[in-house]
Amino acid sequence: MSNPVLVIDQLVVERGGRRIVNGLSLTLAAGEIYALLGGNGAGKSTTLFAILGFLARSGGVLTIGGQDPANAIDAVRAQIAYLPENVALYDHLTARENVDYLLKIADCRRSRDEIEAAFQSVGLAARAWDQRAGSFSKGMRQKTAIALAMLRDTPLLLLDEPTSGLDPAASADFHALLETLAARGVAVLMVTHDLLGAADTADRIGLISEGRIASEWSAGSAEPRFDLNALHDGFARVR
Ligand SMILES: Nc1ncnc2c1ncn2[C@@H]1O[C@H](COP(=O)(O)OP(=O)(O)OP(=O)(O)O)[C@@H](O)[C@H]1O
To answer: Helix (H, G, I), strand (E, B), or coil: what is residue 117?
Structure first.
């Protein structure tokens, strides 16, 4: 893989004196969607926190765009858009004001037209643009956050359980949106429990167990892209 966006090799991360991530390796290219699955407490969010530099690693290699969060945290964070499971927006600000403000914090300038185009492309209804985020559903909050991620135009997008709590139509819209971002060259790493959604969208699916990738599957070119029975069996084995 030439110039991967994300390189993780033999990553070790400890929390509370325990090795939560223990020899995890994963490489992600531009335009690739990788779904990271695993049981509760397997270390998925911990892996995202290490990539974001929220948690220090105690072993292994980790680079984003060739930079190591251990010694270039600002440069690394400038390359990442991160959507936590519950997207944090300022409830008293409108969608437009939220995006304006959060872009400013990220030192990123975008015109009114660019912001509206992003809202349009994520399918946030025009009547919501000037509504306070406090009244938004989870899906609307995510669309706002994805619009922000698109406007920031970062090479790497990290998602923590993005479809939990979304209805099937909103989930399908969300996955279509990820495909649009990936087609623009964004590398997407998505932590999820949604096996079917992952099989619909991801190029690769990794199953994390005991702190490392225990199994990995790549999408085939013909439908079905993944062997769902193999995925279910793999998942059942590590539970
Ligand atoms: N602040 C903390 N201090 C110590 N240990 C922690 C802390 N937060 C999480 N852990 C432990 O780290 C392990 C991995 O947690 P993590 O949140 O990464 O799992 P996960 O795979 O994202 O799980 P889930 O699917 O339930 O969200 C768990 O065993 C958890 O108890």
So the answer is: helix
CATH assignment at residue 80? 3.40.50.300
Q: How many domains does the chain have?
A: 1
Q: CB of 44 closer than 6 A to ligand 1?
A: yes
Stated pTM of the model: 0.92
pLDDT tens, residue by residue, 72-107: 999 999 999 999 888 889 999 999 999 999 999 888
Rounded to the nearest angstrom, the distance between the alpha carbon of 161 and the centre of ligand 1 is: 14
What's the Rg (C-alpha) of the chain? Answer: 18
Q: Whose CA is nearest to atom 29 of ligand 1?
A: 41
* Residue 180 and residue 104 in contact, taking contact as beta carbons nearer than 8 Å: no
Q: Is residue 126, in this structure, part of any structural domain at all?
A: no
**Structural domain includes residue 173:** yes
Q: How far apart are CA 231 and CA 210, in angstroms?
A: 18
Domain annotation covers residue 31: yes
Residues facing residue 173 across a β-bridge? none
* Environment class of 221 (CB within 10 Å of its CB; exposed 0-12, middle 13-18, buried 19+): exposed
Q: Is the CB of 92 under 6 A from ligand 1?
A: no
186 CA → ligand 1 middle, Å: 27
* Residue closest by Cα to atom 1 of ligand 1: 15
Residue 73 maps to a domain: yes
3-state secondary structure of 195: helix
Expressed as residue numbers, the domain containing 189 is 4-88+154-237
